[in-house]
Amino acid sequence: MYPQGYLRQMISPDGWQVGACEIVDRENAPIRKMVDSNGDPFTIKVPIMDPPINLEVWRVLVGKTGST
């Protein structure tokens, strides 16, 4: 989840690559950071290197599931 949003890459009519920024409004986006029972971010440690990689878990609501 990039804090500044995402870059949409397109090809202009004259064949050049151009980028258009898509800012993500996290407060209104259907995405939530998952937390544990203490309210701390839910993280997973992946020990594939030293130091290990720590990942945060996010929930993305996609489509019409009928639940939140």
Brief write-up:
Helix content is 0%, strand content 38%.
How does this structure look, described?
This protein has no helices and six strands. It has 68 residues and is mainly beta. The protein starts with 5 loop residues before the first strand and ends in an 8-residue tail after the last strand.
Strand order of the largest sheet: 1-2
List the uncertain runs. Answer: none
Question: How many strand elements?
Answer: 6
Give the strand content. Answer: 35-45%
State the end-to-end CA separation.
20 Å
Question: What oligomerization state is this entry in?
Answer: single chain
Fraction in helix: under 10%
Helical segment count = 0
Mean pLDDT value: 84
Task: Give Rg in angstroms.
Answer: 17 Å
The SS-based structural class is mainly beta
Reported for the largest beta sheet, the result is: 2 strands, antiparallel
Order of helices and strands: EEEEEE
Layout of SSEs?
Layout: E1 6-11, E2 17-22, E3 31-33, E4 43-46, E5 53-56, E6 58-60
Antiparallel strand pairs: 1-2, 3-6, 4-5
Essential attributes:
mainly beta, single chain, flat, two-stranded antiparallel sheet, 68 residues
